[in-house]
Every structure is written in C-alpha cells, then in structure tokens.
C-alpha cells in the first residue's frame, strides 16, 4: 500500500496494515473521517447556575450540522440528561443517590432530545434517540441489535443521539459516565474517529487550573502517561469520571484502531478542521479483531477459572487453548458461551475468554486430561474449556 496523509504503513500482528501517522496526519485523519462519533459531556451543556445551556447546545449543533452530510455519518453521544433535569425538579445540585439521578435523567432526557431535535431540525437534519444499557454493548446478542439499529438510522441519514439508559441502569450495572460508552459505540459501528468534547481543551499534565500544567498535543499508543495527573471532574460538578474515564475511553477506541481527539466543546469546529487543538490519541498499530476487542473491553466476566502455573504458561506464553487439566477451581454461575476471567495462582487475571462449559459441568472435569475425559464420558468432553481463538490476554 502507498503512504497516505504523510503516514508510514506498518504491519500489525494479525497481518492487518495500519497507518503510523505523524500528529498532523492523525489530525487530518480525524477531520476526514467518514463515520464519526462525537461525545459531549454534561459539563459542556450546563450553565454555571445549573440547567441546560441552550446557547452552547445550539452552537455545538451548528458546528456538527456543518460536518455531517452525504459523505459523513455522525453519531452523537450526549450526556446532560441528569443536569437538564435538575432545574425542573428544583434540585440545587446533582443528587448522589441513584433514584434521584434516575428521576432527574427521566425528566432531563426528554428536554435534551427536544433541544437536539429542534436544533438539528433547523439545519435540516432528523435525530433519533438511542438509549443503551451496559448489556446492550456488552452482551453479544444485544450488541448485534444495537449495531443494527444504529446502522439503520445512519442509512436513513438520521443523526443518532445516544445516551446511557439511566432510568433503568443500576449501580452495579452502569457506565455512569458516557466516555466508555462512546468508545464502545465507536468500536461497534466501526467509526473512523472519536471526538471527545469536554470543558477543557484536551489532556493536560495536571489540573488545567494549575499554572505549571500544560496541554499534551498527542499521545502514542502504549504511552504510560507517566507523571500525568488524571483528576476527577471539573468545576461544574455535573460531569462524571473526569480525565480518568476519558483516557480509558481513548485507550478502548485506539485499541480498536480508531483515532481519538479530546478537546473542548468550544473548539469542536477547530478540532474537526484538523487545527492544532486538544490532544490526539493515535490508534494502536496492531489492533485485535473486532471480536477480541469486544471480548477484552466490552464484556463483564461472569466467572473465574483458576489456573495452575503450567496452564498459565500454556495460555500466556505459548498461546494454547485452556484444557481441564490445568484448572484448579471455578467461581461464578456462568453458562457456556459467557466471558470468564482466567486467573493465576495469585488470583490475578491473565486473560479473558469465552467458556465452552456451564459452571456446574466443570468441577468433575478439573485436573483430568481430555483423553481420559473422552474415554470416561464421551467424545464431546474432548473439547477445550476455552479455545485459543476465544481468548484475549491481559498485558500487565
Ligand atoms: N490532567 C487533566 N487534564 C485535563 N483535565 C483534567 C485533568 N485532570 C482533571 N481534569 C478535569 O476533568 C474535567 C473534565 O471531566 P468531566 O467534568 O467529567 O467532564 P465531562 O462532563 O465533559 O465528561 C475538566 O474540567 C478538568 O478540570
Ligand atoms: N447519562 C448521564 C451521563 C452522566 C455524566 O455526567 O456523564 P459525563 O458528563 O459524560 O461525564 C446523563 O445524561 O446525565
């Protein structure tokens, strides 16, 4: 392949070719993306007095509407439902209990959508509301469903406005912030870029209010960000997660080969014109398959398999399938096909995989060779507990 946008081509582990870009080329790739996910945080949609900031929402939609058209698809992941519900419910600040947050989101989400529908409508665009739960992007059947819905909306030239379905999410199963959700949606729809918009222009070396801090222009994949202080939410008090969840989202998206630009909502236009604003996160040069990316980042383990040292070496060093002989214990109530974590003798997760047995089937099989099991129980017991193709390693 020839070089594009000043990029240098490199070959990934799976033989897939990726572009290792310069910063300028990476920014140009974001600006040229034909399928784009933009995420806007609550902090950028709220007035200092609380409540929805219509002017900022209008400015954002004006910018985005100018960047969506026949050659570009846009999915907007928008937070702000809880913040928008505060004023109508006369709540002075974001509540901390789940039930009140859900009530605020229930009131605010409708108001938020009404604004988006009106504003995008003024620019001749139709919007569709898509409320997702963790399960919708983590369980494979739901995941296909979510993909189909988003794909159909994009085919119909609709701008999907995505948010977490806060009213049904529980504390245990909840994203809370929308950063990770945006990254998973970007991977789900095979976006060519993810733009995270917040109330500060990019990732800084520390609290942006501190005079010694400065903006980081670009982050290469695998960069440990040593010395960077990732703080929690900003001054508005309505955001969730702060920089921690944004950097995590950037890692998820770049791990799927998607470049990420983190900037402020006020600079959305500049960011989409490849101007040197915000922080560019370069995509990982050797991304796993979409399926393994999903397994690593979008699943919640439904149980744990405890491995002896030999099994850890076989799975991690020699990339072998996991057999019953190397398993010493089982936790959880999973079913065949569920994601489970493979843990070493110290209990540290070393890999995640899709298990081929129900949890209740495994105890009598542990420590036994597949040949022994096939003779004693029948040929169907010769199968691996986790096949190597269904395994993704956690790098330490
Ligand atoms: N290293 C850092 N670089 C930039 N911003 C940071 C950093 N550490 C903490 N922050 C804070 O993170 C805030 C953005 O996160 P958050 O409030 O959750 O926004 P959003 O509502 O857009 O998701 C910023 O206002 C900033 O004060
Ligand atoms: N789903 C929630 C998102 C909560 C939130 O604060 O997210 P964010 O501002 O992206 O950190 C809402 O719409 O209020």
From TrEMBL:
Binding site for ATP: 39, 198-199, 240-246
One GO BP: L-proline biosynthetic process
Pathways involved: Amino-acid biosynthesis; L-proline biosynthesis; L-glutamate 5-semialdehyde from L-glutamate: step 1/2
Subcellular location(s) of the protein: Cytoplasm
Main location: cytoplasm
This protein's GO CC annotations: cytosol
Domain PUA positions: 303-386
The keyword Repeat belongs to this UniProt entry's keyword annotation: no
The protein's name: Glutamate 5-kinase
Organism lineage string: Bacteria, Bacillati, Actinomycetota, Actinomycetes, Micromonosporales
Gene: proB
């Amino acid at each position: 392949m020839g070089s594009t946008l000043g990029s240098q081509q490199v070959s990934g582990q799976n033989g897939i070719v990726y572009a290792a870009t310069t910063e300028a080329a990476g920014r140009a790739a974001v600006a040229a993306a034909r399928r784009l996910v933009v995420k806007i945080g609550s902090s950028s949609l709220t007035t200092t007095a609380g409540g929805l900031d219509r002017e900022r929402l209008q400015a954002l939609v004006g910018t985005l509407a100018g960047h969506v058209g026949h050659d570009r698809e846009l999915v907007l992941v928008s937070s702000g439902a809880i913040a928008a519900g505060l004023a109508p419910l006369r709540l002075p600040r974001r509540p901390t209990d789940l039930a009140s947050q859900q009530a605020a989101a229930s009131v605010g989400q409708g108001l938020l959508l009404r604004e988006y529908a009106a504003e995008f409508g003024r620019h001749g665009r139709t919007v569709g509301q898509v409320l997702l739960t963790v399960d919708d992007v983590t369980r494979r059947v739901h995941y296909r469903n979510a993909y189909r819905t988003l794909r159909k909306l994009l085919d119909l030239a609709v701008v999907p406005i995505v948010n977490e379905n806060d009213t049904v999410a529980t504390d245990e199963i909840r994203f809370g912030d929308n950063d990770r959700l945006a990254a998973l949606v970007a991977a789900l729809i095979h976006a060519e870029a993810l733009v995270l918009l917040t109330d500060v222009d990019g990732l800084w070396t520390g609290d942006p209010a501190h005079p010694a801090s400065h903006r980081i222009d670009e982050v290469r994949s695998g960069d440990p960000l040593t010395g960077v202080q990732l703080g929690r939410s900003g001054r508005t008090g309505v955001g969730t997660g702060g920089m921690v969840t944004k950097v995590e989202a950037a890692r998820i998206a770049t791990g799927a080969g998607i470049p990420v630009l983190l900037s402020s909502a006020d600079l959305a236009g500049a960011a989409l014109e490849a101007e040197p604003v915000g922080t560019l996160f370069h995509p990982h040069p050797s991304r796993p398959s979409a399926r393994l990316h999903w397994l690593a980042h979008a699943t919640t383990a439904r149980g744990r398999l405890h491995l002896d040292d030999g099994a850890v070496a076989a799975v991690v060093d020699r990339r072998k399938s996991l057999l019953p002989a190397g398993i010493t214990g089982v936790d959880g109530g999973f079913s065949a096909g569920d994601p489970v974590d493979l843990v070493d003798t110290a209990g540290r997760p070393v890999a995640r995989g899709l298990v081929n047995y129900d949890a209740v089937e495994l105890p009598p099989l542990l420590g036994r060779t597949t040949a022994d099991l096939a003779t004693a129980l029948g040929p169907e017991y010769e199968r691996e507990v986790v096949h190597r193709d269904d395994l993704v390693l956690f790098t330490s």
